[in-house]
Amino acid sequence: MEDHDVLPLIERMDGLVRRVSCDFHRSLCPLVDWSNRLVGIKGARGAGKTTLMRQHVKETFGGVTEAALYVSMDDLWFSTHSFMDLVDWHHRQGGTHLFVDEIHYLKPWQQCLKNVYDFYPDMRVGYTGSSMLQIDYKGADLSRRQRVYDLYGLSFREYLNYELGESFDAVRLEDLLSSHREIALEVTAKMNVLKQFKDYLDHGFYPFYKEDVAGYHARLREVVKLVLEVDLPAIEEVTPSTVVKARKMLSILAESVPQTPKMARLYRELETDRNQGLKILKALARAGLLQLLSSDSASLKDMSRPDKIFLENVNLMQALSPEINAGCKRETYFLNQLRSAGHEVKYPAAGDFLVDETYLFEVGGKGKTFEQIKDVPKSFVAYDEVEVGRGNKIPLWLFGFLY
Fold first, then answer.
1. DSSP tag of 390
2. What's the order of all strands across the beta sheet hosting 345-346?
3. Which of 37, 40, 185, 306 could join 148 via S-S bond, C-beta 3.0 to 4.6 A?
C-alpha cells in the first residue's frame, strides 16, 4: 500500500478527531486503561463510543499522527482497500497505536484483531463495536488477550452534569441506601430535580439528544432501524426473514412492556419456533433494545425464557410505545440504571426487584407503601414524584446516581 492510497483516509479521519468536543467526558473515560495491548469498548448504537475514542485520540496524541491512526470501518475506503494492508502500512511508518471504530463492519473482525495482536507485538489497538459483539464467537479467542469495557447510555447523574455543567460524583449503592437524604438535599438545593428528571426520561439517555431535542425521538427510531437492518445482520449473520421477525417482535413487545411474557403466543405471532424466537429475543437484548429479567442467575446466553421483558430504557419507550403507563416507566428506569451500574437484578417472588441477592425493592409512585414487603429485611421502596426520601423510602430519581 502506497502513501497516496492512504492519505485521503487519514485526512478525513484526522478531521473527525480534531472536531470532536472534549467539554464533557463520560464516567467510563478515566477507567479505560489504554496501556493494554488490546482494548475494546462495547455499547449500543448511540451510546457515545465513537466520541469517547475520538476524545482519547485528540487529547493523547493531538489527532491522527505517525504514532496514532484512527479509522472507522464504515468508511467506504475499506470497500476497495484491505484493513491488514493498512495496519502494515501504519506499522512501517512507525505507528504504535491503532484505533478502530465500528469494528463489526470488518470481516472477520475477530481474526483480524488476533492477527494484529500476534504479528505486531509493539502495536497497541483500541476498538469500538456493537454491544452485540460476541468476543469468543467462531474461532479467534480474544478473551485472554484483551480488556473489554461496556459503555451504556447516560445515567441521570451524567445527564445533569452534561446538561447543566454540574460535577456530581457517582454514589455506591450502599451509600445511597444509608445516606440518601443527605445526597438528595445536596442535589435539590441546586435545581428543580423533578423537572430535570422528567426531561431525562423523555430524551436524556443517548448523548446525541443535544444535537436536536425536537427531533430526538424520530432519530431514535432511525437508530433502532439501523440496529435491526444493519448491525443485526452484520453480527448475527441472520437471514432477511429473521430481520423482519425481529422488527415485528420489537413492535409487539413495545406495545405492552413490561410484561410477563406468554412466549408460545409470541412465537405463534412471529410464525417461528421456540429456538429461533428465543435467539431473536436474546439478540435484541444484546443490541441494547430490550432488558430480560429472570428469577434465576442464568446468564443471557443460558436463559431458557425470561420472567419479564422490558424495553431497554425509557427513552426507547417514549419513541416506540403508543402509550406509556407510569408504572412501566418507573420500573424500566430503575432496572436500567441498576444494571448499567453493574448490579445483578432478579425477578423476586415478592416485590419488584431483588438486587445483588441482598436488597429487595418495590417501585412506585409517591403513595407507594411497604405493604407487599413489610416483613422482609433490607427492603426498600423507590418512589417517584418526591425530591427527598425518608427512612427506607428513597426517591426514584436518585438511583440514577449509581454510575
1. B
2. 345-346, 353-355, 359-364, 379-383, 393-395
3. 40
CATH number at residue 103: 3.40.50.300
Residue among 124, 121, 145 at smallest CA distance from 135: 145
Residues 89 and 186 in one domain: no
- 111 contacts: CB under 8 Å, gap ≥ 6: 139, 140
Label the pairing between strands 97-101 and 393-395.
unpaired
End-to-end CA distance of the chain: 44
109 and 36 within one domain? yes
Q: Are residues 253 and 125 in the same domain?
A: no
Residue 111 sits at the vertex; the CA angle it makes with 105 and 116, to the nearest 5 degrees, is 95
Structural domains in the chain (count): 2
| Whether the Cβ atoms of residue 38 and residue 113 lie closer than 8 Å to each other | yes
Q: How far is CA 186 from CA 180, 328, 360, 381, in A?
A: 10, 28, 26, 21
Task: Give mean pLDDT in consecutive 10-residue pieces for the chain, a chain of 403 residues.
Answer: 93 97 97 97 96 98 97 96 97 97 92 95 96 65 84 98 97 98 98 98 97 97 94 84 92 80 83 89 94 79 79 95 89 98 95 96 88 87 97 97 98
Range of the domain at 30: 3-151
Backbone conformation region of residue 72, classed left if phi is above 0, alpha if psi is from -120 to 50, else beta:
beta
Which amino acid is located at 189 in the chain?
A
Strand, coil or helix: what is 388? coil
Identity of the residue numbered 224: V
* pLDDT tens-place string over residues 284-341: 999 999 999 999 865 656 566 889 999 999 999 999 987 888 999 999 999 999 999 9
Long-range CB contacts (within 8 A, 24+) of 105-113: 105/73, 105/74, 105/78, 105/234, 106/73, 106/78, 108/138, 108/139, 108/140, 110/135, 110/137, 110/138, 110/139, 110/140, 110/142, 111/139, 111/140, 112/83, 112/84, 113/38, 113/140, 113/142, 113/146
49 membership: H or E segment, kind and range: helix 49-61
